[in-house]
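Aggregate trends can hide what the representation actually does to any particular protein. The sequence in question and its structure tokens are set out directly beneath this paragraph.
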Amino acid sequence: MIGALILLFILFLLTQGIYSSMAKRHSFFSRKLMNYLFFYHVFFFGVYYTYALFNPSDSKRYFDSPQEGNLDWIDFFGTSTTFIEFISYPFVNYLHFNYEMMMVLFAWLGFIGFLYAYLFFRENIPVKIKVFRSIDLLTLILFFPNMHFWTASLGKGAPIFMGLMMFAYAVKNPKSRLFPLIAGTILVYYIRPHVFLFVAVGTVLGYMSGKEKISFGRKILIYVAMIGGLLLVQDQILAMGGIEDSNDLVSDFQDFSEDRSQGLSTSGSGVDMASYPLPYKFFTFWFRPLFFDAPGILGLITSVENLMYLLLFIKILKADFIKFIKNSPVAVKMSLVVFLLSSFAMTFIMSNLGIIMRQKSMVMYFIFFVIYYYLAQKKYNRIMFARKKKRLKEIAMRKKEELAFVE
């Protein structure tokens, strides 16, 4: 544990340097808020580490696997689980990190995901929004506990969340943010190829329909990169469902999803989502467990958070939301497409509330971004309308005074 504490201190110092770099690029950057978030995330590292000591955890397998057999580092290079082992291999075998140190390292990667999420939100949405009467929405989103719990340990959750948020931040200015763009893309693809598919489709559709005036050359660059990337890795994506040699993708995907769903529904927190209508599948993935079906203490805590998700989601169930989406920028449309595609795919293969709690942490920030932007746009429109009304009133008063002076 001493090694883990030393590593944590070193990573804290490294983080301060990252803050300094970010503060030079973004005038809105709050070192104070990010330090609060850092220690909050460290707290959840402690929570998850304690949880893992007394419960089954994939983190133990990710630590042990790179040390088994006589395999070289390159032997672990691949997609999904093996890529996490590939990342872990040099730290475990060359630097001799113990289990606690690996947990700290991956928890830090999860925190970097929150750092990029903060930049993604604040850069695109400068308007502050209060919800539930007095709570700052961005602060609430950044401090949701379930998001921190599943990104504070050795596993897929931390690096893929970091990759998604790096990509979301970088795609606004890809030329000047090449490193986070490439790093984010690599992480997302190699950890979850199917999520890379959703991100690529979302990005292309966002650039095709966003309201911004984007140069033709920049659009072509994005299209070629995303579509070309999909063509190159299509076999690996299909292989995740065992349908790379399929002659009927729709039918074979249905068979795969049914088998996967049945397999995941055998545990104590299983739910029979296969028989649910599509709207209830979405509801289950986004907002369950709620208090009536919470699996254990962790489920009860998550239920409080899920209730907040539901209350936030209700805020966009308005008649003007469709019009807002039509006129929204690239980042909003990309986020909505990524969220909906990911949700659609996962509802067909997730039938376990415990796994749902973990899996949805990857994509919920995208719908939070859409909700936040929608509320900020409405507030901005109200402010501009009030200013225009005030200006017209001042003009009318001035004209009235001029007429009175003439008379």
Q: What stands out?
A: Strands lie at 130-131, 135-136. Confidence is low (pLDDT under 50) at residues 240-269.
